[in-house]
Design a protein that fits this description.
By secondary structure, the chain is an all-alpha fold. It has 8 helices and 2 strands. It has a two-stranded parallel ribbon with strand order 1-2.
Length: 192
């Protein structure tokens, strides 16, 4: 439980994935001999979700002045739409090939974007996010849906969101606070 709270604190401070921080911390504890390596520690998804709730709520309350309601709504609804099907798929499909495929797809996308940024002569190669544009809303919704699916499958919503931020420029306070609110709403759905 302490490791889960530490992971969520570091997530709130850095926006680096709390699931990744949790698993890295668990491996460090195993290397130090504090947790038996032969007996892996398992937390049920529900338990981890409940442990994450206080820090998610705290972050949303703390950053409430920067929330963009439209951005938070699109993210929350699109992520919520596919988090449960993603969770159902993880029990039905082998996850190792899916993880490799996901890693390859995201690596190719990052390399393609990096190459385009190196060739671009302009100072700001990203497009400002326009929430009045139906096209941008659809792209944001597709990003949220893929993040929800990957969250259900692997507890890894970050890669599609980071790719989105490679292509679109969003005010950092608006993004962090709106994402925090969408995470609270998603947590309530997962607990319900």
């Amino acid at each position: 439980a302490a490791l889960a709270f530490l992971a969520n604190f570091l997530y709130a401070a850095t926006s680096f994935g709390n699931g990744i921080i949790f698993h890295l911390g668990l491996h460090i504890l195993q290397l130090c001999g504090l947790v038996p390596a032969g007996r892996p520690v398992k937390l049920a998804t529900a338990d981890l979700t409940i442990l994450m709730t206080p820090t998610r709520v705290w972050q949303a309350v703390w950053l409430r002045h920067g929330i963009d309601r439209r951005l938070a709504t699109v993210l929350a609804i699109s992520m919520a739409a596919l988090v449960i099907p993603g969770t159902a798929l993880v029990t039905a499909l082998p996850t190792a090939p899916l993880k490799r495929a996901m890693g390859a797809i995201f690596l190719l996308a990052v390399l393609a974007r990096g190459g385009a940024m190196l060739q671009a002569a302009e100072a700001e190669p990203t497009t400002p996010l326009d929430l009045a544009s139906a096209r941008h809303i659809c792209i944001l919704a597709a990003t949220g849906a893929s993040a929800g699916l990957l969250s259900g499958l692997f507890n890894a919503a970050g890669p599609p969101l980071m790719l989105f931020l490679l292509f679109f420029r969003v005010d950092s306070l608006a993004w962090r606070s709106s994402y925090a609110l969408s995470q609270v709403l998603l947590t309530l759905l997962q607990c319900g």
